[in-house]
C-alpha cells in the first residue's frame, strides 16, 4: 500500500490485522523498481492505490505509469485496487487503470460521496470475474442488502442529468478556487515549493528548517498525520485558501 494514503485504509489494515507492505508515494509517484521488488516476492495479492488526485499529495499517475503498473500486476498476479474517489472532478478525464486493463487485474472503486455529499455512502464497484462470486458471498455475510431507497434516489438523480449539472458546477467552483489561490500567490509569493490541490495548496517542507515551530504555530495547517501507518515525517502540509495569506506571511517572516 502507498504511504501516505487515505487514513481510513490505514485504520482498516490495523483493525483487521492484515499483513501489509508499504511503498512511498511522492510528488512524482512511486519507484516502479521498488514496486516490482515487492510484487516478485509472491506475498502481495492486492495493491491499493489512488491513481488520480492522490490523497493527500494530489499527484496523478501518467498513462505511461499506469500501463507499467498494470504490466507488473499481470506479470506477478497482483490485483490493483483502484480508488477513483475524485474521478468525477477530473476536467482532463484521464484514463483509469480499469479502462486500460486487459488482463482483469483491476478492482475499480468509485465513490459518489465526494461528488455529491459525504452522507451518501454509495460506491460503484467493478470486479474481475475471477473474484466476483467470492466477493458477493462475503459482502452478503457482512451487509445483506444496500439501502435500496438511496440507490433509487441516486439513479433518478443521474438519469435526470442533475448529477452531471452538479458535476460541472463543482468543476467550475474548483477552477474559481484555484484562480483565487493563484491570485494570492501572485500578491504574496510562496518561499517554499508548492503544488495545487483540489481543496488547497500543498507545501513541500522537506527543506524547511523550522518544522517544530511550524507544527505549533496555530496556522491551521494539515500535516496528514493519519495518512501514515508509521510516524508522520512532516514533509508536507496543506493550507486552505482561507488561511493562505496568513501562512505565506508567516513563512516569509520566518525565512527572511
UniProtKB/TrEMBL annotation:
Q: Name one GO molecular function term.
A: pyridoxal phosphate binding
Superkingdom of the organism of origin? Bacteria
Q: Which CDD domains match?
A: AAT_like
State which residue ranges cross the membrane.
none
Gene3D superfamilies reported in the protein's UniProt record: Type I PLP-dependent aspartate aminotransferase-like (Major domain) (3.40.640.10)
- Stretches assigned to the Aminotransferase class I/classII large domain: 2-171
- Give one Pfam family: Aminotran_1_2
**Matches recorded under InterPro entries:** Aminotransferase_I/II_large, HTH_trans_reg/aminotransferase, PyrdxlP-dep_Trfase, PyrdxlP-dep_Trfase_major
What protein name is recorded for this chain?
Putative transcriptional regulator of pyridoxine metabolism
Q: State the organism named in the record.
A: Streptococcus mitis
